[in-house]
């Protein structure tokens, strides 16, 4: 009982904090997901989001402000106020609410995939021309280092993973990852060379928002980094491969390899099973309840899609040998 009362008291204090920031009484308050709330006053709706630190909040405010200055308006807009002090040491940002299309947005059709990729490339073009002082506010990102660390963690987690994933599947993913890293480690000079932009870092479908008026927005820049644009392009390809029926030809038809600075290296990077390794490492670190909830998705990802993934590996390798 004491824990519930304490939680209720903290919610009341957070409401008072939000009212002070907005300078209006709150008439509606709804939690959308962890650390994100929809708040309504008599005059407007806003999104309140908690950030990992004040530095991260200020970085995103800087990014979206510079985007708007450059003419890129299809993103979130932070509200400016004179009292931006933290709440109990936690940083909160307030953004204008974008009314979403009830149908939402997914990578379910070619038209939607193309629209999202066009928007992403427009974002890259704008951030590539930001002042150097703005770019330097963002940490550098090194794709190869991240994948090497992910692979090591996957191997360390083997004993726990093979309790769920048959060893033949584990061996295949381990082999594909090792082969891709072996190829890419020989080309580090190509992977991290300029030009740089501010990459988004998490181009999942839920970070594209279709407004009720039909306009598409790019949101949530928590993982924005200074890096070559192809790192976002590569992640986007991995995200849409199921919708592309695991076809390299479809990715090429949609123009998703056109921006690669080196086509061969980009194809070699597509061989790395990044989503499978990422999700298994996450699964191992989860609690029992979360594992039960997540298992159907992970089973489909790594077992149900195994045949398509194996065929895609062969298609890419044939192209590399041609």
UniProtKB/TrEMBL annotation:
Alphabetized Pfam families for the sequence: APH
The domain of life is: Bacteria
UniProt GO molecular function: transferase activity
Which key words are in the record?
Transferase
Query: Which InterPro entries does the UniProt entry name for this protein?
Result: Aminoglycoside_PTrfase (IPR002575), Kinase-like_dom_sf (IPR011009)
Gene3D superfamilies in alphabetical order: 3.90.1200.10
Q: Which residues form the Aminoglycoside phosphotransferase domain?
A: 34-243
Is Cell membrane found in the keyword set?
A: no
Q: What is this protein called?
A: Phosphotransferase enzyme family protein
